[in-house]
Amino acid sequence: MRRNNSPSGNYRNPCLTMHQPWASLLVYGIKRVEGRSWPAPITGRLWIHAASKVPDESTIKAMEYFYKEIYALNGVTDIQFPQHYPVSRLLGCVEVVGCLTRDELACWEMVPEGVRLEAQTDYCWLCERPQRLLIPFEMRGYQGVYNLERKIYEAAVRGLTPVNSPLPVKFPLPDPRDPFSLKPGCISALTPNLKATEMDGSSSISQAIAGARVAATQFSKKDQNSHGTAQNSMPDRMNANHEDTEVARSYNLRSRGSSMEQDNISSTDLNKKFDDGTSPSYPEGKRSSNKSEGSSKHARYSGAEADLRQYPQPPSKIFAAALKSLKQ
């Protein structure tokens, strides 16, 4: 698989490696904005690959709670989250239709409020028309945007199926005659006086944003030696470390304006949100208690059929430690 580092792009079948659960949330159409610290180098189809890091249960809970809260602002209360979050797999693709700065998207009143609340990073890649692979298949990822191998692309493109998003979004083009008119600076030039909507710092939305920030930044606090899988060679483990560092930087969610007031939320309140098993709620039977002995953790998690939710990690330690660092 050859990476393409040219600044002009020249991508044939561009792919992006992301951590779970963000990768699956994007492919399932729940996540509509991909946040990065650098602008999107492409428009059009972007393949999504899940990195090798197995997500903690607390991370999954925090991000699902975040999306439940922001979708509720637009009247959507029934979200079918993925049953599995497979790792080291090609998951599907989305269409990148443009890229805006955080402030531009946060102020853009032509899109739903929930979408504007996804503006938490320097640059926001606007994604539409998600498609997922019926059978995600194993492959190695790379840092940044890179080209899929031709044989992988030819196999993957035949296995795509459309996704029914909870609230599909069609990002309006500033210039209907130019399909590439959604680029950084275009919205601020048209509406320079718009301001982001202010929120109550004690609201559940603020708590959801706080939880999402903690979930995203916890990658940089993990022991890098824990990354990679049993079958990975040493170069693969080193590559996984690069992936984790890049995605942790890319997902350094930062709330704006009055939403920063959520730092006043006590660790007890936030831990209760994610530890008591009642928020968010999950369909009956979604988490199985079946724990077979004699198999390694990787063997349980690596396959597309593995259920990540069977093996929860105690979320309280992650959230308490992260919240303590935020308050310092």
From TrEMBL:
Q: Which domain of life is it from?
A: Eukaryota
Q: Write down the Gene3D superfamilies for this protein, in alphabetical order.
A: Hypothetical protein (2.30.130.30)
Q: Which Pfam families match?
A: ASCH (PF04266)
- Positions of the ASCH domain: 16-119
What are the boundaries of the region Disordered? 216-315
> Composition bias, kind Polar residues: at what positions?
252-269
Instruction: Supply the PANTHER family for this chain.
Output: EXPRESSED PROTEIN, THYROID RECEPTOR INTERACTING PROTEIN RELATED
Q: Could you identify this protein by its name?
A: Uncharacterized protein LOC113873118
Q: Which organism is it from?
A: Abrus precatorius
